[in-house]
């Protein structure tokens, strides 16, 4: 995080917040756990920021002005950690209720758990729910100054809260890895539910509800349930109340009805919004309504008990690709032309403050030689017998869900669970169909040789939209965003 050092955050008596951790581990002997080929441990930590000790209650998810919490909480924000011990080797899933994790925060958390010897890097995955009613995390993508127009003192406070959150997350991982796990079996199935619509005008509305149930190996008693969906957690709307949104409400209801801890994982929700259409009012009532629908489906899947058993060993891989912009920013002539475009933008009458802040940021980067030339995207695969989990970084649009499901079917994979917002979230990743049309998620409007006014390129701080194939090109051009993402995913799925 660029704005403030850890040493400065922790001086003056501010110390790391202690997570309120709830353990659901049953009494299991170490000997019995060590003998089991598969065992699980899992914990829940409340991460809702409060002041003190958290120095910032600024909220993320919406632009373009300042938005901060003043103590109101509809539903606590949670972090959950589940560790799958595969013949003694830990595989760690960490999920949390925040809107996004920028790259430097992701890398800092990963390096801490790996260097401490808790887990190997490829065996560690973070997924955020993407609730828009949680705290800002970090100061890079998005940059809170660009997004909300806050000052440097506010940025320092945001980074202070980020450090405390990171400490709580690492503590949660450490505790869960070190606890004696429960011998378990795993079972997978999918339900169907529709709680939203495609806000980008694409034909895809995702309806998969993946469910992974862990049962006690001795008596088959349910231990913990993992479930997912793909829809933006914006049902509450834009206010100043902390809320885990429909995801958290669904988890609460599942826990009440099944008596086990429930962990939510977000899917390819970049273009999916809750409601019937864009005219559906966002409100706390919509949180309850849509959360109840997901909970009903998960409970139905568990109660009908048509699961496929999932077995080890875990075969995990973590890779990264570079997503190119619509202009080649390694070419000095292209950078010079881009600078001219942004100088022209600054001269436009009536330019909104956030679009002005963005143009000034790009020009400063050009002058300093720090202009990004691509967007890194981590992609992770966990392969088990009967289930493959694919973790995609960033806000991935629904077309990738459709394409990857088709690819999995061609490869003969039985079950594929696609988790987006995985490890880091620093922008939207659209496929050709959206990149050809433009719009908020595609990062351009009018012309794709500059970031579109008030699009996601502005909110995330990128100079240009991502590269598309030439219009109506099939298959996707090799250097396009779609081709790069699909090639990496296909290699992992193979």
UniProtKB/TrEMBL annotation:
InterPro entries listed in its UniProt record: TAT_signal
Protein known as: Neutral/alkaline ceramidase-like enzyme
């Amino acid at each position: 995080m660029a704005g403030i050092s850890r040493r400065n955050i922790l001086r003056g008596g501010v110390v790391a917040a202690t997570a309120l951790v709830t353990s659901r581990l049953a009494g299991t002997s170490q000997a019995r756990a060590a003998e089991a080929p598969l065992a699980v441990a899992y914990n829940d930590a409340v991460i809702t920021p409060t002041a003190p000790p958290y120095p910032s209650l600024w909220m993320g998810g919406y632009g373009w002005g300042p938005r901060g919490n003043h103590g109101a909480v509809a539903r606590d924000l949670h972090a959950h950690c589940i560790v799958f011990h595969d013949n003694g080797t830990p595989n760690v899933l960490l999920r949390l209720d925040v809107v996004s994790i920028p790259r430097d925060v992701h890398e800092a958390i990963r390096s801490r758990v790996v260097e401490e010897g808790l887990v190997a890097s490829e065996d560690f995955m973070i997924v955020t729910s993407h609730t828009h009613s949680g705290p800002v995390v970090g100061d890079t993508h998005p940059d809170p100054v660009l997004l909300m127009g806050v000052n440097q003192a506010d940025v320092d406070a945001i980074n202070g809260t980020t450090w405390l959150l990171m400490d709580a997350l690492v503590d949660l991982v450490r505790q869960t890895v070190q606890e004696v796990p429960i011998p378990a079996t795993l079972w997978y199935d999918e339900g169907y539910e529709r709680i939203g619509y495609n806000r980008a005008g694409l034909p895809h509305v995702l309806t998969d509800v993946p469910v992974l149930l862990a049962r006690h190996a001795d008596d088959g008693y349910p231990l913990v349930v993992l479930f997912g969906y793909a829809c933006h957690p914006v049902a509450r709307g834009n206010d100043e109340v902390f809320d885990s949104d429909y995801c958290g409400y669904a988890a609460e209801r599942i826990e009440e009805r099944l008596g086990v801890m429930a962990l939510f994982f977000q899917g390819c929700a970049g273009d999916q919004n809750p409601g019937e259409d864009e005219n559906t009012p966002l409100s706390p009532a919509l949180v309850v309504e849509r959360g109840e629908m997901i909970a009903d489906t998960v409970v139905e899947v568990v109660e009908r008990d048509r699961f496929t058993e999932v077995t080890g060993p875990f075969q995990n891989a973590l890779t990264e690709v570079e997503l190119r912009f619509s202009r080649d920013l390694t070419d000095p002539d292209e950078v010079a032309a881009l600078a001219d475009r942004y100088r022209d933008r600054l001269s436009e009458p009536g330019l909104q403050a956030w679009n002005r802040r963005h143009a000034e940021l790009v020009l400063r980067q050009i002058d300093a030689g720090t202009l990004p030339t691509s967007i890194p995207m981590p992609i992770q695969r966990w392969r088990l017998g009967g289930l493959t989990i694919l973790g995609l970084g960033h806000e991935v649009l629904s077309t990738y869900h459709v394409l990857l499901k088709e690819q999995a079917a061609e490869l003969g994979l039985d079950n594929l669970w696609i988790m987006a917002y995985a490890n880091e979230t620093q922008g939207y990743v659209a496929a050709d169909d959206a990149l050809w049309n433009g719009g908020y998620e595609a990062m351009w409007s009018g012309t794709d040789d500059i970031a579109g006014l008030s699009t996601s390129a502005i909110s995330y701080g990128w100079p240009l939209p991502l590269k598309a194939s030439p219009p109506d090109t099939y298959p996707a051009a090799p250097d396009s965003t779609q081709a790069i993402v699909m090639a990496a995913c296909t290699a992992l799925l193979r």
